Amino acid sequence: MAELMEAAAAVIQERGFEVATMAEIAARADAKIGSLYRFFPSKEAVAEALMQHYAEVLQTEYAAIHARAADAGPEELADILIDLLVKLYPQTRAIRALLDSRTDWTEIRLRFRSLALAGVKTALKACAPDLDDSDADDVAAVVLNNMKTMVGMTMKDAPTSPGAPDQLRLMNQLYLAAKLAPGRPAA
């Protein structure tokens, strides 16, 4: 089943969900189409299984980050967060294609965004327990967008230059140092 899901992720990422076919997924996995249908009765079932898997991967990674965040300084937390989506990209490479493909997946998109924002916010609050909830929401949104930008730069999906990822990393470090450091000025 893991091979089928890996093949599905590759085909969906390369071709897009709407264009990908069950036959292509089976061929990529070097499996018979009947084997694919035995586990997944439709392409939508494959997509749902991939989304569930991606949510579990993200939750596991955030749990590990939360465990480290209380002992991390703002700059270290900034690096951990900015690298998270890049690190997960090989395991979650079809997520963008899935989320962008279906207009009826608005609820799924919102759940994923909420999961990601909650994961970042929890890490921020673990690092800086006195951070105001409203500020934590705002900072989490900025950091999440920086994380997405880093994936785009790293995978060459966004306009970039050789030094731009390092500049984004530095920007994220400085931003979190200013927002999370003890004695920081009030916003």
From TrEMBL:
Residues 21-40 bind DNA. The keyword Repeat does not apply. InterPro entries: Homeodomain-like_sf, HTH-type_TetR-like_transc_reg, HTH_TetR. The keyword Acyltransferase does not apply. Residues 1-58 form the HTH tetR-type domain. Transmembrane segments: none annotated. It comes from the Bacteria. Pfam families: TetR_N. Keywords: DNA-binding, Transcription, Transcription regulation. This is Helix-turn-helix domain-containing protein. The lineage of its organism: Bacteria, Pseudomonadati, Pseudomonadota, Alphaproteobacteria, Hyphomicrobiales.
